[in-house]
């Protein structure tokens, strides 16, 4: 249990420490590998490393880690910890989920960059049903392209999150990055199936340093209704920290 506490503390503290780091040299902001929920075709460089911490509703924390293990291949894992922050109990650690992304095309003037991947991380874990009420993207194909103006990028793709139902979902997002200082993000996730409604998410990403980003977002805007277990759908505010470096 002590080892788990140490790991959780690292996920919470290391990104914040990274924000204060000053290596004295000029650096370039790395391409975003994801927006709020949806993936992009961006990947970490070979030997790249990313540590992510997301604070979500009811004191929950999502910790994630990702590595650039090959020139175009990223591998990682993530895990939810419910009620970690605050006074509610008991704290519940959910099973870790794997993340894989392979960028097979860098695109061109007219063609977007393309990547294929797998992400098993869902949200709102239901202990009774032993499943996520909002499933992870599962197997996905995504394309990303800068359009119309510098800093304005579109990301879209398809995913299969449930291999039993074999539903094909879609996702689409737009972000505008202003002078590598701040980005504004809008995305529509989980498209095409009314029995599993889509999600509209918006957020702002602050590039505190070239290696550290701080996100503020709202998920499921204007969403109503209930999940399959009766839990009410509602908008959710999140704060997320991401630290990128190399090893």
What are its keywords?
twelve-stranded antiparallel barrel; 247 residues; Porin; 49% strand; disordered N terminus; mainly beta
Mind sketching the topology for me?
Elements: H1 2-19, E1 48-56, E2 60-68, E3 73-82, E4 92-93, E5 97-105, E6 113-119, E7 123-126, E8 131-134, E9 138-146, E10 152-160, E11 169-178, E12 182-191, E13 199-209, E14 212-219, E15 236-246
Description:
The protein is mainly β. The chain is 7% helix and 49% strand. It contains one helix and 15 strands, in the order H-E-E-E-E-E-E-E-E-E-E-E-E-E-E-E. The chain has one helix at residues 2-19, and strands spanning 48-56, 60-68, 73-82, 92-93, 97-105, 113-119, 123-126, 131-134, 138-146, 152-160, 169-178, 182-191, 199-209, 212-219, 236-246. The strands form two sheets. It has a twelve-stranded antiparallel beta barrel with strand order 1-2-3-5-6-9-10-11-12-13-14-15. A two-stranded antiparallel sheet has the order 7-8. A hairpin with a 4-residue loop joins strand 7 (123-126) and strand 8 (131-134). The radius of gyration is 18 Å and the shape is globular.
């Amino acid at each position: 249990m002590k080892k788990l506490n140490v790991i959780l503390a690292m996920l919470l503290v290391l990104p914040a420490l990274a924000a204060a780091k000053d290596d004295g040299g000029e650096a370039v902001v790395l391409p975003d590998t994801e927006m709020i929920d949806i993936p992009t075709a961006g990947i970490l460089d070979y030997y790249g490393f990313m540590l992510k911490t997301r604070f979500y509703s009811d004191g929950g924390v999502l910790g994630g880690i990702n590595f650039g293990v090959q020139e175009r291949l990223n591998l990682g894992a993530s895990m939810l910890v419910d009620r970690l922050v605050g006074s509610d109990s008991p704290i519940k650690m959910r099973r870790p989920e794997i993340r894989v992304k392979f960028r097979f095309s860098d695109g061109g003037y007219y063609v977007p960059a393309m990547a294929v991947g797998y992400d098993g991380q869902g949200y709102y874990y239901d202990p009774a049903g032993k499943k996520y009420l909002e499933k992870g993207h599962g197997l996905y194909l995504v394309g990303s392209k800068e359009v119309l103006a510098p800093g304005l990028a579109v990301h879209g793709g398809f995913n299969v999150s449930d291999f039993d139902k074999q539903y094909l979902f879609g996702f689409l997002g737009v972000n505008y990055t202003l002078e590598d200082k701040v980005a504004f993000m809008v995305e529509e996730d989980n498209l095409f199936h009314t029995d599993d409604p889509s999600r509209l998410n918006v957020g702002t990403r602050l590039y505190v340093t070239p290696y550290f980003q701080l996100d503020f977002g709202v998920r499921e805007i204007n969403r109503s209704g209930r999940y399959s277990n009766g839990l009410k759908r509602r908008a959710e505010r999140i704060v997320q920290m991401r630290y990128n470096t190399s090893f």
